[in-house]
Amino acid sequence: MQLPPALHARLAGAPGSAEPLPVERDPAAGTTPFSFAPRLVRFPREHDFFEDGDVQRHLYLQDVLTQVGGAPERPRRPSARVPEFTCQVAGCCQVFDALEDYEHHYHALHRNVCSFCKRAFPSGHLLDTHILEWHDSLFQILAERQDMYQCLVEGCTEKFRTSRDRKEHLVMRHLYPADFRFDKPRRSRGQDFAVDSRIIWRTDFSMGDFYKALSISPAVPGAAEQVLAEALGDDRAPSEGDAMEVCSEHVEPSPEPAGERRAYSHRIPSTICFGQGASRGFKSAKKRNKHQ
Amino acid sequence: MWSRQRGGLKPLRCGVEQLRCRRREREAALRKARREQQLVSKRLLRDEALEEAEEGCVAMIFGEAEIQQFLRLAQRGTEEKEREGALVSLRRGLQCPETQQTFIRLEGSIRTLVGLLTSNQALLQLEAARCLHELSHSEQSAVVEACLPATSYLLTYLSGHSSDFISPHLTVLEALGYALSQLLQAKEAPEKIIPSVLGSTLPQHMLQLLQPGPKLNLGVAVEFAWCLHYIICSQVNNALLITQGALSTLGLLLLDLAGAVQRTEDAGLELLACPVLRCLSNLLTEAAAEAVGGQLQLRDERVVAALFILLQFLLQKQPSLLPEGLWLLNNLTANSPSFCTSLLSLDLIEPLLHLLSVSNVVSVLVLTVLCNVAEKGPAYCQRLWPGPLLSSLLDTLAFSDTEVVGQSLELLQLLFLYQPGAAQAFLQQSGLQALQRHEEVAQLQDRVHALQQTALHG
């Protein structure tokens, strides 16, 4: 099947539709004994028309499943082995011997970090939301008068008066787990700051924990005292003052042109490394962990 | 794709001919299963998988205590191997329906599993994804439904990472897409599951995962495209999907696919092409697909260019998918003078005629598309003439298939009506003899006679 050479160029060209030629129908067209009329055709799920494609799909799935169901007991490293190395983020002392594990670790813990309180978040979107809600005094003021707590699910435009209302919406509407937590203050009870990094994440594990867990690793050396204070039961709400002091040595908030730019200017530029400090600093005194 | 991530093919244990034979058998079994409405049966998938599994393991029935133990070990074990091992054991157990039931009834079990899926331990994530895989192709709808609430949450987590997808995330996403596709295929899906899926943000997430661009992952896209297909062909609320931009996303994806097909011999693009073609074709039948003024929302003629590039690809790679591509072409051209004009101005009639010899089904579809063009009037027929069309029609009149011949007769009527000289040329090329063969065929005779009259007497 030879295609005209200009076709590939057309595909790569600009969007556009052809100027249609004039349509002029004769009433005799498609009349008895003829019957043609252009028709949109729709096929429901079980129609035989889909048989071939469905069969191909299932052949593919069968192949996939035999591989998925295959013996995982074989020692299987998905990533290349390399000589042991340490995470380069200052203060983080995770050790790795596989690049993929390191990549995973980095993205999970160092990528979306709040420059104020050093909490890390799974995504830029959540980090932005956190900054807005925790570190923006204007937000607090506005929140007294209007619904400011935005639903966390991207694409859902609902806003709420309180974070509790938002949480309820997440649970009811988006089927989040009931014990999910996004914005609990760093109310730690010692167990969160155990020396072993695994236990920080694993103790009392529940679905919302990755938000909580990832948000309790302050990344600046010297913030250790602050963290310790909180760990000993100081239930302060996120303290902007302290956080600002801590981070101001490292990041100059750029002059803020207009409202919505504020949140972004406090994100850590990717080239700057903050120490992954306090709890790790604690920990580094004790033992280095091989990353699992 | 799963297979690519595992990094290799299984070692060939038998000759190529045996493989082909085995594949033919599997295909025959699947066709039979589909006709008996059993293709959805996951037992079919799993039995095959178990047969081929090298260890020939036996599914274990685990009780609550054992499952809890495994989950605890997976979450809090001290040794990596131990934690992985716990999930492996759990997965084996989950191959068994009783264990599945126990699992979903155990409080917090799905939550724990999802926690492991979103953990930062790559190997654990992979094993947890395999467990989810097992659960999702359970035959018991209760089990599969238990997985559904987690999906929204997981997708939020995973799409939050969309800027930096790394391989465990991709694996989890793919498993999730597969799990969802199994769910959506269930018999009760249109009444029970699809409405709630449509009422959530899942469709938007799915469409996001189908956006073309550097972040598009083929394995993930395949799974979610099939999800979308099951939703759309169930015809629950396609208008909603259109308002969420499904037409435009899928159109752009089609363009992207055509580009990919040109660049690479990559295996697997047809796996994505199939559901995309189906989704687009079905969506175009919705009233909502029309913008104000009756024009199609999807108007870009690059879609036609892309489709032909895909047709050429399918002709080489997977001819059985040609009907699906031509179905889309029909729905694009049926009510659109603009797309019909594109076919003419982009010189696509001749390539289209090339497909006439592939199969009867394909021939009927090709002729239908040509009729879509011709019925728009003289300006269109003029551009169809002269050229290879006449000789192609004379060829198709030599087919024995009644539908093919019937559609050829319809096209001839339109050409005789709108194109002066067509009837004459037809006569000169021994058209009457070609018609004669069918004079006695019940479904064809009236039309044959009518054409004979027109040709002879104008």
UniProtKB/TrEMBL annotation, chain A:
Please give the organism: Balaenoptera acutorostrata (Common minke whale)
Spell out the residue ranges making up region: Disordered: 1-30
Source domain of life: Eukaryota
Domain C2H2-type, residue spans = 87-110, 114-135, 151-174
Under the heading InterPro entries, the entry gives: ZNF511, Znf_C2H2_type
Q: What is this protein called?
A: Zinc finger protein 511 isoform X1
Gene that codes for this? ZNF511
Segments spanning the bilayer are none
UniProt cross-references to SMART domains, sorted A to Z: ZnF_C2H2
Question: Which PANTHER family does the UniProt record give?
Answer: ZINC FINGER PROTEIN 511
Automatic annotation (TrEMBL), chain B:
Q: Which InterPro entries match?
A: ARM-like, ARM-type_fold, Armadillo
Q: Provide the protein name.
A: Transmembrane and coiled-coil domain-containing protein 6 isoform X3
List keywords of the entry alphabetically: Membrane, Transmembrane
Species annotation: Balaenoptera acutorostrata (Common minke whale)
Annotated gene: TMCO6
The answer on whether this UniProt entry bears the keyword Membrane reads: yes
Q: Which domain of life is it from?
A: Eukaryota
